[in-house]
Amino acid sequence: MKIKTCEIFTKIADEAKSFFKHSPPTHDWSHTQRVVALCEKLGGEEKADQEILLASSFLHDIGRERADREKICHAELSAKLALPILKQVNFPEEKINDVIHCISTHRFRGDNPPQTLEAKILFDADKLDAIGAIGICRAYSYAGENHQPLYTSFDKEYELTKIVDHSQHSPVVEFKVKLSKIINTLYTKSGRRMAEHRHKFMVEFFNEIFEEIKGIK
Q1: How far apart are CA 21 and CA 5, in angstroms?
Q2: What is this structure's pTM?
Q3: Residue 190 pLDDT exceeds 90
Q4: The listed CATH number (3.40.1080.10, 3.30.1450.10, 1.20.58.1910, 3.90.640.90) that belongs to domain 130-217
Q5: What class has domain 1-109?
């Protein structure tokens, strides 16, 4: 990467980091750093534009804290906040719209699906950080932040179980209704391949904790 380009991304990272001073562990700066690393890996395997990926991954959640407070879409707000930052650091003008598209389409529950290769990679990277060992950590961290129980409506047949009652959420419910399904939502071959191990680990973890809770082990 050229010196000037490195300076641009250092500035982008510094600007992005300033938005996470009061963020909870589930969506703090370390989440962004992991998504950046995943984008670099997946982007290399998929032969994507790394400049677009790096910029969008650093900026993809900068509106998260404010959006959660205001109950609005964090992807749309992050895209809006990213635009002046990209212009301020003199990011290549011809790539700015691609970065904005990546950011605005990365949300799991959004109705604005990613269209470009880079947007699909950012989507996959963000979802990969929600599963596997780190995904379990984040699910339980979120449960602690929101005073949720460790488990509810627990049975072992995850894939065959009907959607449980949302009135009492827990990491187990989160696994059933969302995390267990993420592997089937990914767009890239590289992302799906990486998800296989993470998905398997989650299933094994919840099988293990089920058996411990029931006194089987």
Answers
A1: 26
A2: 0.90
A3: yes
A4: 1.20.58.1910
A5: mainly alpha
